[in-house]
Structures are given as C-alpha cells and as structure tokens.
Amino acid sequence: MPARYQNAMKWALYALLFLFTILLQDSILGRVQLLGAGFCLCPLVTAAVAAEEGAENGGLFALISATFWALSGATDGGSFILSMTVLAIVVGYLFRTLLNHRWWAVAVTNLASLFFCLLLPYLVRIYLQELTLKSLLPMLIQCLLALPFACGIAWLCMQIGKVGQNRG
Amino acid sequence: MKRFWNKKIRNLLIVAGVLAAIFTLTAALRQGAGTGLGENAVNTLLTPFRSALSWVDRSAEEIYDYMFRFQKLKAENEALKQEVARQNAAIDAAESYRRENLRLRELLGLEQEAEEFSYESAYVIGWDNSVWEERITIDKGTAHGLQEGMCAITSTGQVVGLITQCGVNWATISTIGDISLQVSAQVASSGYSGVVQTVRTDAGQEELQMRYLPQGASFIKGDRVVTTGGELFPRGLLLGTIRSSALDETGISKYAVLDTELEMGTLEQVFIIVRDES
To answer: Contact A75/B127, CB-based, under 8 Å?
Structure first.
C-alpha cells in the first residue's frame, strides 16, 4: 500500500480511537463515580499519539481533538484545549530526545499529562477560593482510575503507529 | 539535542491559546446555558453513536440482571405491585375529592385553574464525568419539540433538572445535583418556602439543601419538599425528603438537608414536561 494511504489510515485510526474514548467515557463510564471522581480519558490519547508521532504532529492532533472534545460539551473545554496541546508538544519532544519508547514509559507520561491537564482547572478554582486543597482528592482518584486505560491506550497507539513508518 | 522551539510549535501554541480564550469567554458569558453552532454540529454528529453505545450498555445490564439478579428483581416486583395497589386506592380517593372540588368551585363561581401537561420521553445517552458539574445528555432535541428551559422528571415525578442546551437531536440537562441550579420549593406538609440547591460543604462533599427557611421552622424527618411552581418548574414536583436541619452560617435562617431518590448512575430514562396551559 502506498505510504500516503498508510499515513492517512494511521491518522484515521488515531481519530477513531479518540472518538471511541469520548463515547466510552461519556456513555458508559460517565455513570460511574468513585468518591466524587469520574473517568477522564481523552488527555491520555493525545499524549500517547504525541509520544508516537512527535511534538509537531502530536501537538496538532491534540489541538484538533481537544477542540472537538470541547465542542462536544466537555466541562473546562477551553482549559483542556490549551493544556492538552502544550502537554502533547512536551511529551512528543521528550520521547524524541530523552525517553525510551516503551509502552510503560508512554503510560506513565500519559498519566502525568492527565494529572497536569486536570490540575489547571483545580488551581484556578482554588485561586478563586471556590475550593480548598482537600478538593484535590477527586482529581488524584481520577488519575488512579485512568491507570489501566493509560496502559491500554499506550499499547494501542504503539500498534497503530506501526501502520506507516512515519517517525520524523 | 533536537530543537524544541520552532515556527510550527509557536503557531500551534498561539492557536491553542486563542481557542482556549474564546471557549472560556463564551462559556462564561453563556453561563452554561445556550447552544453554539459548533456544539450543535458536533453533538448532532455524536448522538447516534452515543445512543447506540447506551443501547448496548442497557441491553448488557438487562441480560446481567436476568442472569444474576432474577430473584431480587422478582421480590422487588412483588413489593412494587403492592405499592401500586396502595397508590391506586389513594388515587381513587383523590379523584373523588377532585370531583367534589369541581362541584364546589362551580357553586361558588370560581374560575378553574388547571395545567395540562404532555411528556416527551428520552433516554439518557451521556453523563458528564466532571467534578464541577452534574449534567446528562439525552437523545431528543428541537426536532422532538424540546427547547431550553424545559423541566425533566423521572417516571415517579422526581425532578431531574432543566434543559440548558438543546440541539437538533440531543439536549443537555443540568440536574438538581449541579451547584448552579436553584429551585424555588416548599415543604409539602407545612408550607415553609425556601430554595433548593446543591451545596459543597466544608468537608468537600456535595449535598442537596433547602435554604433560607425561617429560624423557627420545624420539620419531621421524611417531610416531602416540592416545587412551588413558576415559569420553569410546574407546581408540586418532588425534589426530595428532609433528612435533617440546622441553622445556617448566618444563624438567622435554617437549612434542611434533603435525601433524593434520584440516582444518576442508574437513571436511564427521563420525561420532559412539554407544558400546555389550559
């Protein structure tokens, strides 16, 4: 198959994975809450794609995906657009220069990205005195709940990345 | 080491910053209600997929219930049949009081005040998993006669919330568990009036409270709290039952903590009141 079509299929698969993640967290996992925390999985996908595709392509994918997610009604959508794009760029850069491309390393960086994406709205609300530091507990629980998904998404993105050979 | 900063990265960050600012400003100005063109388009596209996935989820739960919770469901069914029989007897009594009320109104020449409602049922296809807001998405919208500001209830008359965004084939409901929603209410037995809203306590928990009650108000545990009626919520819809009460932070008025039978995790279907005053 020509490289161009392989590349297009690869990005289509990434997009499908992101779409499926939105549907999974909204329509099935959305009704599940533990100590006030639910599932937030979208930042994991954009970070995993950036780890696979690099800072520039990963950052662009994160920008488009986060905008789509914000338009679908995500709370704090504006904050996620900025944080997901920035973190995708950082993760993409780290995996091109410093980190080994192992699935567990990708999973850990994905979780770290999720943590920082969720932290921003919390900090704003703590600054506006709408919350106290105790309220960070649901956020930590959200990160813990995302752990198995971080591993699965990291592995899936590595498999999708093998479609085509674009590691530029 | 590969260069981090280049023109493409800079442009990405600028666009991300601008989009983030636009979204944040738009959300702040709309205050959670109202539907933009982009939101309508994206959610209209996503709704069939959400509906399909929700259907699969519901079907799987039905099969699981049939296989593993059959005896429990059977016992629950028997208890509900007895409850229905009791309610039917109460309805018969209420019907006879209604007829007597009509006759007396005619005798005194009073004008009849009645509101006739029709309902549109909808399945819940999405739950907002954010810590800040409690919203659900349903699979019906303007194409089915729904619009922003309509009230949603369960099959037992428990208030679910208010439609805050409405698209072609979807709508978002802010539930009574959402901190932003306030409902004018009264205690059904005693008539004390107040406002029901979800409040975040100092311990970080969220609880449904009825606030601005008179200092001297007294309650019985289990007293029903219902809507007082108005432009958004019809009169007499159940909001919750009183669990406890205490003086609020000002010491001048009281608040009551409410229990509600609304369980967001198991809510599958809601009924939107399409009001038709007559």
So the answer is: no
In a domain, A167, yes or no: no
Residue A166 lies in a domain: no
Kindly list the structural domains of chain B, giving each domain's residue range(s) and its CATH number in brackets, ordered by start.
182-261 (2.40.10.350)
Helix, coil or strand: residue B66: helix
C-alpha to C-alpha distance for A111 and A107, rounded to whole angstroms: 6
Domain span at A120: 3-161
State if pTM tops 0.80: yes
Nearest CA in chain B to A36: B131
Rounded to 5°, angle at Cα A73 from A126 and A59? 80
pLDDT tens-digit profile, chain B (278 residues): 456 788 999 999 999 999 999 998 888 887 666 788 888 999 999 999 999 999 999 898 888 888 887 778 888 888 888 888 888 877 877 888 888 887 777 777 665 555 567 889 999 999 986 777 889 999 999 999 999 999 999 988 899 999 999 999 999 999 999 988 999 999 988 889 999 999 887 766 788 999 999 988 888 888 999 999 877 888 889 999 999 998 888 888 899 999 988 888 888 899 999 865 54
Q: For residue A73, give the nearest of B16, B19, B43 by CB distance.
A: B43
CA closest to A79 among chain B residues? B20
User: What is the count of structural domains for chain A?
Assistant: 1
Chain A residues within 8 A of B38 when measuring between CB atoms:
71
| Pairwise CA distance, residues A87 & A49, whole Å | 11
Within a domain: A67: yes
Q: What is the ipTM of this complex?
A: 0.87
| Residue A168 resides in a domain | no
From chain A, the residues in CB contact with B53 under 8 A are 23-24, 27-28
Nearest to A71 among B39, B49, B172 (CB): B39
Q: Rounded to whole angstroms, what are the CA distances from A150 to A50, A110, B209? A: 14, 6, 38
Where residue A36 sits, what CATH number does that domain have?
1.10.1760.20
CB B49 within 8 A of CB A23: yes
| Contact across the interface for A97 and B13, Cβ inside 8 Å | no
